[in-house]
Amino acid sequence: MNAATPVARIADTGWVHVGTIDDIPRQGARCVRTDGATIAVFRTEDDRIFAMEDRCPHREGPLSQGIVHGNCVTCPLHNWVLSLETGLAQGADEGSVPTYPVRLEDGAIHLQLQNPA
Amino acid sequence: MALEKLVIVGNGMAPGRMLEHLFEQAPGRYDVTIFNAEPRVNYDRIMLSPVLSGEKSFDDIVIHDDAWYETHNVTLHRGARVTEIDRASKTVTSANGITAPYDRLVIATGSSPFIIPVPGHQLEGVLAYRDLDDVEAMQRYASFRGNAVVIGGGLLGLEAAAGLHMQGMKVTVIHLMPTLMERQLDTAAGYLLQKELEGRGIDIRCGANTRAILGDGDDRVIAVELDDGTVIDADMVVMAVGIRPSTALAAEAGLEVNRGIVCDVQLRTSDPAISAIGECVEVDGRVYGLVAPLYTMAKILAADLAGAPVDGFLHAETPTKLKVTGVNLYSVGDFAEGDDREEVVLRDAARGTYKRVIVKDDRIIGAVLYGDVADGGWYNELLRKGECVRELRETLIFGQAFQNAGNSDPLAAVANLADDAEICGCNGICKGAITGTIKDKGLSTLDEVRAHTKASASCGTCTNLVESLMALTLGDSFDASAPKAMCGCTHLPHGDVRRLIKANALKSIPAVMQELEWTTSGGCAKCRPALNYYLLADWPGEYVDDNQSRFINERVHANIQKDGTYSVIPRMWGGMTNSQELRAIADVVDKFAIPTVHVTGGQRIDLLGVKKEDLPGVWADLNKAGMVSGHAYGKSLRTVKTCVGTNWCRMGTQDSTGLGVALEKFLWGSWTPHKVKLAVSGCPRNCAEATCKDIGIVCVDSGYEVHYAGAAGIHIQGTTKLTTVETEEEVMEITAAMMQMYREQGFYLERIYKWADRVGHDTIRAQILDNPDPRRAYYDRFVFSQRFSQTDPWSERVSGKDKHEFKPMADLSSPSMEPAE
Ligand code: SRM
Ligand SMILES: Cc1cc2nc3c(=O)[nH]c(=O)nc-3n(C[C@H](O)[C@H](O)[C@H](O)COP(=O)(O)OP(=O)(O)OC[C@H]3O[C@@H](n4cnc5c(N)ncnc54)[C@H](O)[C@@H]3O)c2cc1C
Ligand code: SF4
Ligand code: FES
Known about the structure:
Low-confidence stretches of chain A: 1-11
Number of helices of chain A: 0
Strand order of the largest sheet of chain B: 3-2-1-7-19
CATH topology of the largest domain in chain B: FAD/NAD(P)-binding domain
Helix content of chain A: under 10%
Number of domains of chain B: 7
Bound molecules: siroheme, flavin-adenine dinucleotide, iron/sulfur cluster, FE2/S2 (inorganic) cluster
Structural class of chain A: mainly beta
Strand order of the largest sheet of chain A: 2-3-4-8
Number of strands of chain B: 39
CATH class of the largest domain in chain B: Alpha Beta
Oligomer: heterodimer
Strand content of chain B: 15-25%
Low-confidence stretches of chain B: 403-408, 816-821
Number of helices of chain B: 27
Mean pLDDT of chain B: 90
Shape of chain A: globular
Structural class of chain B: alpha/beta
CATH topology of chain A: Rieske Iron-sulfur Protein
CATH superfamily of the largest domain in chain B: FAD/NAD(P)-binding domain
Distance between the termini of chain A: 27 Å
Largest interface: A-B, 53 and 46 residues
Number of strands of chain A: 10
Number of domains of chain A: 1
Order of helices and strands of chain A: EEEEEEEEEE
Radius of gyration of chain A: 13 Å
Shape of chain B: elongated
Largest sheet of chain B: 5 strands, parallel
């Protein structure tokens, strides 16, 4: 998928195709803009895909710009570590980021945008 | 009464096993007829690789010989491909005109290899790997030696590659993903496998995509071309990129077909008179490609045909092994990382082994083993039974045999070094010399070892290693308060890691993690940037930078700001600028509506609040005006501040501006443990504040004072004066030598002043000042490494590098939204 191509919603299910796994480097992230939040879509070293709001619970750092390691991302602003799976801050820090369900099918990434967890 | 007629389409491993069970349970119940497209009896397909490599013959792998078919009264039609099933009249017909009626029909058509339709895929010499015909064809090509290219680095591809290599061919494996067998192995095990196969002489290209297969005038394969333009000679190409269940026959007969032929848990298709078995089957949405589940199917179908009660088919994890002689790997289950699971990792670099067991809710859910696979069966057993492993947790990773004492030895990495591995780089002392001297002279303290061997007596970065050697040699009697580990992923401190990277010639992050026995599979945000720097500094021109291991600023060559925008600082060499540059900056500010322009503390201009997507555009315009990245974001050379010196100042003694510009042009682009800032002042009034910089030059009448190890950030510390020299050339040589010494010895995020405190000013003075040989050597190594680092990262990105960094993957916001479906 070309970057920033407008994407049609699958109206009845809430699942939206946003790109393919190859669009994201391993241990990297890309953003998806929506009318509401910007969503960061992460790809781990073992090719799992996670999506969460691109906004750190600490001081709103863009998590998509962090370093991805294991199933976590380290925020680029003040190094909070957040779980990609649960959105929870790790270690001594407290807070959480809304996450979004992801479906990966033959490399195509779909997000369920309606009800972030 | 006539026997019921059982007809089987396909004579592979699954129906073969099924018939064995059936003849045991209900001998003589059916009159059996088999149609097989292959012109031969049932054989052990999974042993084709040893046949290819020459380790076995076809006779060795036959499962049912002619006598077996006779004994069981089975009619086998060889070379007879069934082309039609007539469900109304209950008959099947083959391409060579044989028709057979059935009461019960079993479809066992297996899978067909998937051929990627790249240009050239029909050329002569492009082969699949599925049956004996393929093996015989490969062996014909191999008899001429020559070049083989295997497309696909999965199980089949690697077995083919190893077999062809043993047959004397020069083999290249092309694999799309970054690591081999990524579906069965994690990256650590994939690395070990790649290393093993490369060690045998097989060329492995991961992350490589085939663009085309090239042929000669006679439509014979001559080469394979990759996406990046590389052309690899090939007399033969083996495609082993995957398999597809063979479902066409069933689909034409109107049976329900999805990915495979859809069956219930008794393996009946949508027509109750027709069952299916093997790789062509889909049960509960799953299809299978390994024999273990197919053998389970065989039992179930045999019972069903015998009219005996049986439990339905249940999914179970099947372990993967690779049948390449001398390679031991084992993987089973789910080995992804996750919050809800824990991983236990054990690496033994000397033996080249790696074990990782994944535990969730006190139960094993997956395991990856490389090298030492003895416990694979045990882990799989625990996994299959869903046994609680809470009690075993501590010793689980050491395997079944190990259920008493013992622990993982933190000294193992050092113990395993060869005697001629260099421990002390400054003095060229090897491990054997140190342990030998400790024993011969009865040494017991670090100072004694330093005095007698010179090891760790210079820069001191090998101190921990020397202490480890002492601990190994002296046992419990030696106690050193060990310095802190680099991060939670290793017990080794920075110094040891740096030295072991050199001593063991480790050249990639997975290599470091395996050989130095990292306790996590992929490292963390602390160790990865450090390792990336160490490898970059130690192997210039060889190591390929790992962008994903860099902090965002270094990934996008701009500084992230608190609101997620970026700041852009172009170089102003020595703090100099001119009207064109200023005009270009002003234009960029207007064009991209940049909100803030600030003159930095480093004598240059910072454009703050640039949107990420605008970065390439901003750089392109600045590049056009001749400006390049100022690396204001990097662990690298930042600024060289200057004053106006003899050019203008009535006090100036030398051309401080010219020297500053020359230094910046010489040093820029170089990656360093932490940032490096310089300044050149034209006289001792020191208007460029040179005496609080990492390296500072103060011009005097007689020449140039060289200072170093200043600080004016968190700590304030005046520089130490190194020397006074007479020429600019000497300043350049000393500065570059000092940079290089720091690059080679500094710990990640350690500024020059901290490094100097640690290694000692005397050591630096001895290497850089007192002795011209090491100085020259450092200088030469710096110049060499600069050959690979002085490319402007901005212009690289303007011309498309890392494009993905700068654009969102998708834009679902209203202005560009299409109507919903
Ligand atoms: C932009 C600038 C302030 C300004 O507007 O003037 C600046 C901005 C930052 N400085 Fe600085 N420093 C700037 C000159 C300095 C100076 C003065 C100098 O270079 O002559 C110092 C003291 C000298 C020194 O480095 O010791 C300075 C000492 C620091 C330190 C403390 C370093 C230390 O080890 O003590 C940090 C923190 C760090 O590096 O960990 C820091 C970190 C930062 C960071 C990178 C904070 C951060 O981590 O995000 C700021 C980034 C801003 C940005 O996005 O551009 N900045 N910073 C100056 C850029 C200079 C340039 O042209 O490249
Ligand atoms: C080189 C190689 C190595 C392997 N290694 C392993 C391993 O280590 N471990 C493991 O578990 N598995 C391994 N496998 C996979 C394993 O061999 C298969 O899972 C298994 O053989 C599948 O059995 P099957 O009976 O479903 O199909 P097959 O064994 O493929 O048999 C299908 C047969 O049906 C015939 N046929 C197809 N269509 C028709 C038709 N219309 N009419 C008549 N006949 C037809 C085909 O010619 C073929 O002979 C390997 C496979 C290969 C090729
Ligand atoms: S002094 Fe502090 S606030 Fe100011 S630029 Fe430097 S790091 Fe940022
Ligand atoms: S904003 Fe993420 S750590 Fe501060």
